[in-house]
Amino acid sequence: MLGLYISVFLGMLSETSMNITLPDLMNDFGISSGTAQWMVVGYMLAIGVVLPCVGFMLKWIKAKTLVLFALACFLVGAVICTIAPSFPVLLAGRIMQGISTGIVLPTMYAAIMRVFPLRKIGAANGVAGLVIMFAPVIGPTIAGALIGAFSWRAIFALFAFAALVAIVCTALFFVTPIERTRPNVDALSIITSAIGFGCLVAGVSLISDMGFSPMVIGLLAIGVLVLAFYAYRQLHIADPLLDLRALGIAAFRTPAIMISCSFSCTLAFMYLVPQELQRGMGLSSTVAGLLMLPGGVINALCTLAAGRMFDRHGARKLVWIGSVLTIIGGALFFAIGVSTPVILFLAAHIIVMIGIPFIQQSSQSAALKSLPGHMAADGSTIMNTMQQVCGAIATAVATCLLGLGQTNYAAAGGVNPAQGFVDGSRYGYLFGMVLVVVVLACSFLLKEKKEEPQLVPVHVDIEKLAA
């Protein structure tokens, strides 16, 4: 699993480390915040388009071959971004990286379901969660340090080096634990999947720059209609691209929704926080990154702990603990101002980084555990598709709310850009807290799968019994 763990860590690190670079990219390329956010949304858009096809790809292509191809895409994309002379070229390299992450993310979970026994799914998922959840919080620290010492281009150079390491580890150690059944290829499903998810995420993302213009409304309408047709087709053909029947299992559907909401909350917070530290509180990118490191370390420890605690206590109680802590941390984020002491930010960030793993890991383990083995690849693909598409939408919504808050501040006569950014960020934090409340409400509907009792052989002394 080492090659996959490094690959997914690299993908998630790339997904979130860009937040702290956005002010530098805006200055270097002379672009707006709405355009710059495509470094985040475009990446997730690529993931969202590729993800629904991965379960099907794994039924046709050797998992090892697929992962090596994905890592090659990531390496080429990182090199392009390192030398990019303009923003469109930079975005093109970024999208190649998104394609890579879209492949390796569900592949990791599908492999986990084949490698580890059911009773150890929580612990195994804890390691996978450490890979996924640690990256978003350590990413800004690494990015801030590299920007301070060199420039934003050094971040992509680091990605290229890490991709080479992942390629070597995958080539040496990874096996193919997923059987290939080679079902019929439904080209129409592939086309509608790409169009539907692409139009939906693109439409939401463009709202921040274009408002509800005819183009945006058209993209949203096309996305919804095409996805509705796509879903209908998957449920009525013999060899679906993605087996959506998994969503008919309540024990899978509920935690999948909870995962999407909590992941969206995390990305919304991680999009706003680094920028607020720089543009609201006037800190450098290096200092902003370092301030996020303590929460990252604590997040790593809590992610491992949550995975192991799931095997003993189940998901519901852990979700309750995580939801309450995340809401408290979000409320503290809401209280941050231009002259707020740094200690308040540290407290808010650490509390959120404790709470999110309890939601994310327990929900993920509950969802995976509820599925039969033959649906593991489709189930992991569905979950990751929901996470990435919802995450892209959440980032776009946070951007819109940030702009709305800044506009309202200016309309009220405000003239301090830093205070305007802080006011706008609060709108985004409130959105994140609402998502966590949805998670908390869904937790009461959790139906956790119990392990089947195992028959234990008993030794009987026949001679003694006869006597």
UniProtKB/TrEMBL annotation:
GO function terms (MF aspect): transmembrane transporter activity
Membrane topology category: Multi-pass membrane protein
Pfam families cross-referenced by the UniProt entry: MFS_1
Localization in the cell: Cell membrane
Signal peptide: none
Chief subcellular location: membrane
Origin superkingdom: Bacteria
Record's keyword terms, sorted: Membrane, Transmembrane, Transmembrane helix
Residue ranges occupied by any Major facilitator superfamily (MFS) profile domain in the UniProt entry: 1-450
GO CC terms, sorted: plasma membrane
Spans traversing the lipid bilayer: 35-58, 65-89, 95-116, 128-149, 155-175, 187-206, 212-232, 244-273, 285-306, 318-336, 342-359, 389-407, 427-446
Alphabetical list of PANTHER family matching this protein: LINCOMYCIN RESISTANCE PROTEIN LMRB, MAJOR FACILITATOR SUPERFAMILY MULTIDRUG TRANSPORTER MFSC
Entry protein name: Drug:proton antiporter
Naturally occurring in which organism (per UniProt): Bifidobacterium felsineum
